[in-house]
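# nightly structure sweep
# worker-07 picked up a monomer target from the shared queue
# config: single-sequence mode, recycle default, output format = structure tokens
# input follows
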Amino acid sequence: MIPSVFRSEYLQSPWNLTLNQHAAGLISVMDYAQRFVHGIDFSDYETAVSQLKDCHAFGRPADAMGTGDRLRL
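# output follows
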């Protein structure tokens, strides 16, 4: 699961790997995404949605860049 607010980072990392042979960015993005998903309680829909909102997961990628409302663990 890649939250919408994290989309730009997620899409940029493979490009960086392809163009610059720089794998560290992709590894970092995937590690962050994995840690994020692991921290969400998906046993109950309302709880999961509440946690996702608290982490800014539903924000737009442009908002994360402009206002600093980035994905939080």
